[in-house]
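Bug #77: duplicate submission created two jobs. Keeping one. Sequence:
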Amino acid sequence: MLTPREIREPLLRAQGYLKSAQPVQAMQAMSQALRAMQGRSLSLLRTLTKPIQDFLAQLEASPRIQILLDGCVPDDMCAFPYRLGQEGTLAVVLEGLVKILQRQEQYIEDKQKAALIYKRRDTLFETGKTYLTQGALALALAFFSKMVQEFAEEPDIWQAPAKLLENAACKRELATFYERVLEVQPKNAEVYSRAINVWLELEAYPEAERLFIAFAKTFGRHPRTLSRMAQFYLHWGHLEQAESLAKEALSKDSTLKEALVVLKIIKDTA
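Kept job's structure:
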């Protein structure tokens, strides 16, 4: 089957640009080809699947893209997932990465240096945001996690990615992201609380329990902490743990209404 000119020519340009180590121009040309493919017959798209996949594999292996992806994409994960019929989605991803690479050039501090100097934090954030927008949640989470790992000394580094995940209603990814934050900021009480709340919303009780236990170990068995754990176990239906923790909380602060309510509910259901 003859490939239409409006697809064939940008596809060939994309391959040529990539061979000459010009990934930005290559992605721009490929995006043009992908957009021209939208709405075409499946038989034509099938003939183009292999060239596209080969292009994406070579793109991912190019040095400039490797710098962008460094440490963010697991070895067993493709940075540019593509399936038949997803030409438009892939085009948007490539266009987003083109903008990121172009933006990086504005951050060059010394044009005499052989390598570009990137504002790494912004690059990681914008790349994760691009993947999130396109629904590539695992890759978005990988970039956000890498950002937090590399800039853990900034106490609020997690807030912007968390807000994006929250707004996108990606609750499981959000809870997982909070746990990644805790790996590098193990004494961040707010992140502990947020992670626990999200796991509870998902009714992922074992995950919430694990964090409750870790929180108490890190910050101590304070009365309010014990009271909240008692409420959690009561809601989960683990009455013995709920009763024990409520009593422990009251032994330290007899005025805690939440713990008293837990014991009353357990007594009334006995």
